[in-house]
Amino acid sequence: MPTVLSTKKLSLSQKNLLLNSGIALVEYDAIKINFIDLELSGFFKNAIITSQNTAYAISRKDIRIGRCFCVGSKTANYLKQQGFNVVEVADYSKDLGAIILANYSDESFTLFCGNRRREELPSILKEKNIPLEEIEVYRTHLDPVSFEQKFDGILFYSPSGVKSYISANILNGSLAFCIGNTTAAEAEKHTENIITATKPSVENVIVQVVKKFKDDKK
Hints:
The protein is of the alpha/beta class.
């Protein structure tokens, strides 16, 4: 029976996708999120939200947003459920940047983000002199755990998750299953054995795991 390590604790339904396919699971949280207790209120005309952590952080604040520009369908769906007006959604930051350049280049934006936010989207907007204010609403901390066990696959959901795992372990021939291109780029620093999800979601990472190990049984 193949055994995989998830660098993020999964929901019951996500676990069952693996366990029902005959795949053993070990899980832990490779990173910790701390939300910043800052006073934030008022109206923001155009807000960029690139993660579920950011969406959760701003939903707890007394703010109003005219239009939300999101990375990730789950982030967008959460914001819609909280009553926010989501106007654009893309799977990756660079794709959202392209949408903004094409359709909203005369606007100004507020980027709500964490302390480890990636540079692609701010760079795209700054290159075109699109005004961008950044507000940090949470902090990501690496929380490394050392494992003696060798895993057939390791599931990564962010570059920070890769960094956290590698800081205490080696991949040692394990397949790296990555949620998207930026996570895969970080994993590529340590291995060539990478499978990247076809859509950036936890469920699709799991689909790739199940597919790979079912194919190997044939």
